[in-house]
């Protein structure tokens, strides 16, 4: 049931989180790329670079923010 809930919660773009957190888009993209729960859409063509689009669920953004915040 938890997976169903995550699928329909608010998903942020890299740009939105970068603006809210006052960080660069590149930093947020690198931080979130391999984070469990982040949805990654990609297009790869032979001999060309990979284009990735990330969608970050609110629960994942909250988890990462909490982990990165000093106690």
Task: Summarize the model shown.
By secondary structure, the chain is of the alpha+beta class.
Q: Would you mind describing this structure in some detail?
A:
With 71 residues, this protein is α+β, with helices and mostly antiparallel strands. The protein has a single domain (2-68), classed as Arc Repressor Mutant, subunit A. The chain has helices at 2-7, 14-21, 25-32, 58-68; strands spanning 11-12, 39-43, 51-57. The radius of gyration is 13 Å and the shape is globular. The N and C termini lie far apart (31 Å).
User: Which strand order does the major sheet show?
Assistant: 1-3-2
Helical residues, percent: 40-55%
CATH topology: Arc Repressor Mutant, subunit A
Share of β-strand residues: 15-25%
Please indicate the count of domains.
Answer: 1
Q: Which shape, going by the Cα principal axes?
A: globular
Please, what is the oligomeric state?
A: single chain
- In CATH, what is the class? Mainly Alpha
List the uncertain runs.
none
Features:
71 residues; alpha+beta; Arc Repressor Mutant, subunit A; 4 helices; 3 strands
């Amino acid at each position: 049931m938890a997976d169903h809930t995550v699928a329909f919660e608010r998903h942020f773009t890299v740009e939105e989180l970068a603006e809210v957190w006052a960080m660069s888009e590149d930093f947020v993209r690198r931080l979130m790329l391999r984070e469990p729960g982040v949805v990654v859409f990609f297009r790869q063509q032979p001999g060309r670079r990979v284009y990735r689009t990330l969608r970050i669920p609110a629960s994942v953004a909250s988890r990462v923010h909490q982990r990165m915040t000093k106690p």
